[in-house]
């Protein structure tokens, strides 16, 4: 990777974006009893954990966290989730990832839930790059970046929230 890194978001700004998204999720789901927050591995689950932590403090509803693992190299949907899929039936699903680029990962994440009845499905990304090859839009995003396709967005998230950053490389 090139040595030039442009800081897009620092740790405090990332936390502000995640806080704002959590309040938007609260407003969108205020009358629900329970929502499922599904983080796409490897970094979408870190964003999902932070959203769940905030919602646990501010929301009247219960939130459950699950992880989605997707084979991003496959041309067909190959995935696994960390719970029985039927436990998600008739619930609100919030799919969370760190960066939306082509939309393939988010589309595959939604595909996991296509064979069960849902109340609604929403998508959350920290960074929306606007290079979609798939007809996917985000319902909630931290920031939209207009980048060129050769740019790379590096999201650094730590369990302690210290030294978190988003770089454009």
UniProtKB/TrEMBL annotation:
Q: What start and end residues bound the annotated signal peptide?
A: none
Q: What's in the keyword line of the UniProt record?
A: Glycosyltransferase, Transferase
Q: What is this protein called?
A: Phosphoribosyltransferase
Taxonomy, superkingdom: Bacteria
Query: Pfam families attached here?
Result: Pribosyltran
All residue ranges annotated as the Phosphoribosyltransferase domain in the record = 8-155
| A molecular function (GO) term | glycosyltransferase activity
Query: Which InterPro entries has this protein been placed in?
Result: PRTase-like, PRTase_dom, PyrR_bifunctional
Give the organism the record lists.
Answer: Mucilaginibacter limnophilus
Residue stretches in coiled coil: none
Q: Does the keyword Transit peptide apply?
A: no
Q: Which PANTHER family match?
A: BIFUNCTIONAL PROTEIN PYRR
